[in-house]
Structures are given as C-alpha cells and as structure tokens.
C-alpha cells in the first residue's frame, strides 16, 4: 500500500519565511510534519527548541554563546561608604577551584524559543548566573579576606547572541524546507516520508555553522601560553580607595548599560 503524502510543508514554509512571525509557530508546524513522517529524532529536536533544555543536559553548540564574564564586588574601604563595583573579568582571574569547574566566556542558553523571543523583545542584555554561582561567590569572598564581599558572578549575554540562536534555528528549518522541495519530483505538492528523512541532516546534523556573536581564535602548538593576569580583587588598597571614590558614577553607568 502506498504511503500517504505528508501535508503541511507549505504552511511551514510560510511560517519560516515570515520574519515577523514567532519562530515557535514554525517549530510547531515542523513538529507535526516530523510526527507524520515518524521521524523521532526530528520530533525530539523540535521539542527541545520549544521547551528548552534541562540543567545537565548536553546543549548543541549553537546554544553555547560568547558572553562576557562579570563580577560585582562591594569593596571594604575604611572611612568610606560601601559601594558596588561591577566589571568584566577573565576566567583566569577566578580561583583555581572555580576555573576547574569550567566557568569560561561562553554561556549556555537553555531557554525555549518563546522565552528567548521574549528576552529579545524586552531589548535588554541578559545577566545569567552560572550553576553554583553562590558557592563561587563565597569562595572568592573568602579569598579576598579584606572584608569585601562578592555580590554577583554572572555572564552578560548580548542581544545579538540571543538573536543568533533564533536565526540559527530559522535557517535550519529553511534549509530543511529547501531540501525537501529539491528532492520532490516536479509537480508534486506534498512530500513522501522518505523526502522528510533525506532532509533530516539539515536539522539534526552538524553541517550548519552559524555565528552567534563573539569571535573565534586559533592557536598553534608552538605558540607560547599567555601569562594569566593577576586577580583584579588583589590590587592595592589605593586602587580600592579610588574605586570607592568613583563608585557613584560607575553605578550610574552600569545601571544605564543594563537598561539598554
């Protein structure tokens, strides 16, 4: 008996190409097509993009985005009011025990597509705390040993990185539609399940590599390893005094930066 053709490709194509439409709508249409074609791997992929990834689940590479690592410290300066100081830091400036747990300059984005779209619509950069950040803050505070307190350790994820995730997913779905169309005989309106299976690589494979912000760097074996910079919280008390004196201006700038 002939396997029935699968409907819904035209609706998926319209949803994917409409930049103003929610990407979640296109994913739901894709989920139906994957179900009709009995493509479990495609269904699982679409559900993960819609619902998001649980903590501890392995993420696809396009959801590990470049992000600035920041720390907020409340310096202890005798005779001055306590003020907060937020600045970008290098992972090398963290205690070795924290670095050993893999905290770097890439943030995992586990949210579902609807949540990512909502974050983008708000127009704010995202501050994302690493798992176990409370423990990390306690370790750094203990290492300071001067009465200063670490108030926050987080990634600052730029809007361009979040938009890049959405664009990556939309492009995968577009390539999927294009491949299904290319595999169909002229004049055929709806694809067979075999056409869906042949295009699965464009969704679940690793042949697509779309930038999500940030830059990449290459190194050769013979290149010297750079010397890590000293932890910024280990600077002299003179610098901490200067920080305290200018913290009011820095706090205003930080607040404006977050709002943007």
Poorly predicted spans: 206-260
Distance between the termini: 60 Å
Could you report the average pLDDT, rounded to the nearest whole number? Answer: 76
Strand content: 5-15%
Number of strands: 6
Please report the number of helical segments: 10
**Main sheet overview:** 4 strands, antiparallel
The secondary-structure element order is HHHEEEHEHEHEHHHH
Overall outline: elongated
Query: How much helix, percentage-wise, in residues?
Result: 40-55%
Count of distinct structural domains:
2
Radius of gyration: 24 Å
> Which sequence of strands runs across the widest sheet?
3-2-6-5
Structural class: alpha+beta
Walk me through this protein's architecture.
With 260 residues, this protein is α+β, with helices and mostly antiparallel strands. It has ten helices and six strands; from the N terminus they run H-H-H-E-E-E-H-E-H-E-H-E-H-H-H-H. The strands form two sheets. The chain has a four-stranded antiparallel β-sheet with strand order 3-2-6-5. The protein has a two-stranded antiparallel sheet with strand order 1-4. The N and C termini lie far apart (60 Å).
List the defining traits of the structure above:
260 residues; two-stranded antiparallel ribbon; four-stranded antiparallel sheet; 2 domains; 6 strands; disordered C terminus; alpha+beta
Summarize this structure briefly.
With 260 residues, this protein is α+β, with helices and mostly antiparallel strands. The chain is 46% helix and 11% strand.
């Amino acid at each position: 008996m002939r396997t029935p053709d699968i409907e819904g490709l035209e609706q998926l194509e319209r949803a994917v190409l409409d930049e103003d439409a929610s990407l979640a709508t296109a994913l739901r249409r894709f989920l139906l097509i994957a179900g009709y074609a009995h493509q479990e791997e495609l269904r699982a992929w679409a559900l993960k993009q819609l619902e998001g990834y649980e903590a501890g689940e392995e993420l696809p590479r396009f959801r590990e985005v470049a992000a600035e690592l920041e720390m907020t410290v409340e310096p202890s300066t005798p005779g001055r009011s306590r003020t907060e100081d937020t600045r970008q830091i290098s992972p090398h400036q963290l205690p070795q025990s924290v670095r050993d747990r893999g905290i770097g300059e890439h943030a995992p984005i586990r949210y579902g597509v609807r949540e990512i779209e909502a974050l983008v619509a708000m127009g704010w950069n995202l501050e994302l705390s690493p798992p176990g950040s409370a423990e990390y803050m306690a370790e750094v505070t203990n290492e300071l040993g001067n009465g200063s307190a670490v108030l926050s350790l987080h990634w600052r994820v730029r809007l361009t990185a979040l938009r890049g995730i959405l664009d990556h997913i939309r492009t995968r779905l577009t390539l999927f539609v294009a491949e299904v169309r290319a595999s169909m005989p002229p004049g055929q309106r709806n694809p067979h399940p075999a056409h869906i299976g042949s295009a699965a690589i464009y969704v679940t494979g690793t042949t697509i590599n779309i930038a999500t912000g940030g830059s990449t760097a290459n190194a050769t074996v013979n290149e010297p390893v750079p010397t890590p910079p000293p932890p910024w919280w280990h600077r002299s008390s003179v610098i901490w005094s200067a920080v305290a004196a200018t913290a009011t201006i820095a706090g205003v700038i930080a607040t404006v930066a977050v709002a943007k």
